[in-house]
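Two quick folds needed for the group meeting slides. Do the first one here.
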Amino acid sequence: MKFCKFIAFLLIICFVLFGYSCRTLGLNDPEKRVRKQEKKEAIKVQKAHKAEVKRHYKMQSEDTQKRMKKNLRNARKKNKSKKKKSKWKCS
């Protein structure tokens, strides 16, 4: 019985160490690190662009804001209808 527990303990230790080493190897992968950094930069650029658009919108007069909002709503509707009419199927 003690031998079985000892073998089970060794197996658990081996699985834990093997799993940890695989994770660290994945983190040290330079290609993965570059992809992750590019993804972070893309998110930063998107946030900055969104903030700039919002700032520009807030600087406009009330009438202009209404017109911009209406144009945006119409553009969204137009884009939705374009997507529905598409003959391409994603697979």
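Then this one, please, same format:
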Amino acid sequence: MVGSAGMAGRKERSDALNSAIDKMTKKTRDLRRQLRKAVMDHVSDSFLETNVPLLVLIEAAKNGNEKEVKEYAQVFREHANKLIEVANLACSISNNEEGVKLVRMSASQLEALCPQVINAALALAAKPQSKLAQENMDLFKEQWERQVRVLTDAVDDITSIDDFLAVSGLAPQDSKNHILEDVNKCVIALQEKDVDGLDRTAGAIRGRAARVIHVVTSEMDNYEPGVYTEKVLEATKLLSNTVMPRFTEQVEAAVEALSSDPAQPMDENEFIDASRLVYDGIRDIRKAVLMIRTPEELDDSDFETEDFDVRSRTSIQTEDDQLIAGQSARAIMAQLPQEQKAKIAEQVASFQEEKSKLDAEVSKWDDSGNDIIVLAKQMCMIMMEMTDFTRGKGPLKNTSDVISAAKKIAEAGSRMDKLGRTIADHLLSCLPEQ
């Protein structure tokens, strides 16, 4: 009787330990997902309208304004550094070794090309009438744009399309809802008769939509033609051939009406409907892409709960959010926007709570000769290191280290589960038959 009671007590404690481990594994997975999406958020923003700094630099050079060229050269250099830094950051969350090599090589080539482009602009600014200087500038412009395309495609190849679509503003639970945010800004600009704001935001929407279409269309090349690819490509064609031209037409009409003296009236409802269709079109693309995903492959952000509205939304992208060349991923994390920090902090707080429960459960057991308890304590140590990372301290230095730590926890959890099942089977075999 005493033996049976003892085994029952051990089984209860073992169940509690397994439950604590399961919860901790889930929290670790959630934290890893938040870190991954934080990186993808930077990828989504940085590889949008990548040619603007270059075009501004060239325009200043053609005008022979050497002072402006030097100023815009600094902007161009910072933009190039940001592309390179974000590309390397994307490498830290990828397991695609060959793809990572290609990204790093492309980033290195872009870095080497940057000063050559600036020198070509300075030469053109010094002699704006020189045909040779103009041809030289055109040559480097083509090289730069080609290299940026190569880097963009390489980064796309090592990142998940699901993550990209989520942070492009299609997952309502994300800290940034880019498309919805931009669409609402566009409508607000129209209502406030802000011509510059309207034109600028509409340009961002067109650029983001074009990027989504390019990424999704390229992704479909990886699949055999069939019902799935047809549905996805049908959604992209609808956005590209029907929705975006209508949106562009409405924007041009609005800009023309507001720029008139006096300003001409226009149909605001038509503009809002065209804007709404952009949001709906991109959302439909994401739904089509997720059509073949299993429930296990989806996360909470894949279930939409947010509706379109026209309220003002303040962008959380600030100048403090810029990536500086040479920073570690941990330093980059410290510079994330406050909403992203809050999201990760929430995960960490929950992570800490589950760790405390696991610590309390493990402390009840003697680890002498007990492999399960040894594994559990190892997991607790790794969890503490991951928590320290979010505070800017500890042995983990970058996102890759955090992901590696999460993998170690998952591996330890698998070994623990196997040991637990073996012990449970043994206990059951020892119980007297009723």
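Slide caption for protein two: The longest helix spans residues 2-46.
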